[in-house]
Amino acid sequence: MRKHQGAIIFGLVTVMIAVMLLSVSVGPVEISVPVIAKMLWHKLGIYHNISGWQPAEESIIFQIRLPRVLGAALVGAALSTAGVLFQGLFRNPMADPYIIGTAAGAAFGATLAMLLPLSLVFYGFGLVPIAAFLGALGSVIMVYRLARFGGKAPIISMLLAGFVVSSFLVAIVMLLLTMSDRLGLKLQQVFAFLMGGISVTYWQQVAVIAPLIVGGIVVTRFFAVHLNAFSVGEEGAAYLGIDVEREKLIILGLGSLLTACAVSLGGLIGFVGLIMPHAMRLVLGPDHRLLLPASAMAGAAFLVIADLLARTLLSPAEIPIGVLTALIGAPFFIYLLRRARREYAF
Amino acid sequence: MLSETTETTNLLLHNVSFSYADGFALHHINLLVPGSQMAGLLGPNGSGKTTLLRLATGVLPPTEGDVRVGGISLGKLSRKQVAQRIAVVPQQFNIPFAYTVEEVVLLGRTPFVRGLAGEGKRDRQIAASALEITGMIGFRNRHFNDLSGGERQKTVLAMALAQEPTLLLLDEPTAHLDISHQVEILELLRKLNREKKVTVVAAMHDLNLASLYFERLVLLNHGSVFADGSPDVVITKEIIHEVFSATVEVGRHPKAFVPQIIILPPDSQSN
């Protein structure tokens, strides 16, 4: 299996691109993939022929669908990568991108933002996603500082601090929800955020977040060897020459940044960041040098499909994407788990 | 004697003290292990064996004193530089992921791998020879978590060897192993010590095995060195009684002529 790494990466790239093209093509107005391909060639200046499509179709593709599909791919890639980072660092199969407080922090930030009587748009982002981004990062910083004692932030302390901070912030959100009438909080809006949904309407959003997510994922590759060393535990990693506290902080920072970026585009989308790393580990083995890029691409493809279904199945109504990630993801994962000949030793 | 390090000294603990927040401490440990030596650390539970080993690995900095490896103070080396010199076989070793034996052994090359490059041909050769020496080459594609305790311990030892250390520290390497694996591991350590010139320092619980395999024994009690010398010096009826509160007879090994203890349970002493 591990001899075909090149082929697997190539296959994942192909699947990811194919799924994105398919997703761009499907919608209330069907536009065939060859036509989309011609439009893309034209835009890129490779193929100069503007026949075969309506200007309206071009704006549907470029102004509506493409940014959204790219947004879904970015969110999926970011969450899966963060999942690999946290599962690897914590050596915990239940770890997901939200484990150290990012989800609760984002929910807290978003809810507060919804309460504020002002609206602003900053590089295509409203107040809610910005507050969610800051809330996610803020809570991780708090968790890390709470867990740190005498220059060390042991993993167990961090998991516990994450749990405690999350519970506290969720309690505040619940309290705010209970008082929604009095505060003028729109429950619908809060639930939409909590259940997740790709909300990319401006190219600017993609332009701001894409470099952060793609850059973050590329940087993780430099820490893959360190993550492998963390497989033997914190002290074991130190014996292998890892500067444990420093590397841990970098890996946590990267994972949290990726998660916060994802949250700002898609709200709290569950399951993908938990299950995609496991699925890829089942297929490819535990080496993070392969696992990180593979999970990023698989997560991207998976979330593009989930988003496609979310917006088409009950069209014109939209299903929360978090519902679909679990609905498709759970059977898919069970299939992989059952098919694996040997017991999955995490 | 302790103030100067010669080239033949590999591990030196100079007046090392350490205390945990809960009060347990090591007091003024002076220890000099020559490069060619195989030293066994003995002592009751809680006497400081593991703490002393952790000080020697550099993961615990001493509160006082200096730990040197090959003449260089550990405080002056980065974690990576330390790992290029010292390998550790800890008491507990587990990997939650499905690594193969070969992948685990390749982890031993971590301190030598640079950034993106990954391990090269030379790293693979070193890992292969570590698998060869430990007799694990036939298991290279098996999953680590499917192995027996003895096979796992040999894999961890192979991983440590892949670091090409000059100093190998082991915390009770034969604990939980059957007799044949205990002997196999100790024979392996002796071979590494003699043929590869690796300095071996191991915490041991089994006094007879320690006496049989280690030319030098260091007996700790309440965080201090109680006795230090050849098995003949350390394994005596009086010392064992004082440190372990156990009554023993000390005899001689019929072939190796080193001291071996025979335990006398309290109710058998009247006979």
**Poorly predicted residue ranges of chain A:** none
The CATH homologous superfamily of the largest domain in chain B corresponds to: P-loop containing nucleotide triphosphate hydrolases
Q: What is the helix tally of chain B?
A: 9
Could you say what the CATH architecture of chain A is?
Orthogonal Bundle
Which two chains form the greatest contact, residue counts included?
Answer: A-B, 29 and 33 residues
Distance between the termini of chain B: 48 Å
Could you give a short account of the major beta sheet of chain A? none
At the fourth CATH level, what is the homologous superfamily of chain A? ABC transporter involved in vitamin B12 uptake, BtuC
Shape field of chain B: globular
Q: Output the number of helix runs of chain A.
A: 15
Shape of chain A: globular
Strand content of chain A: under 5%
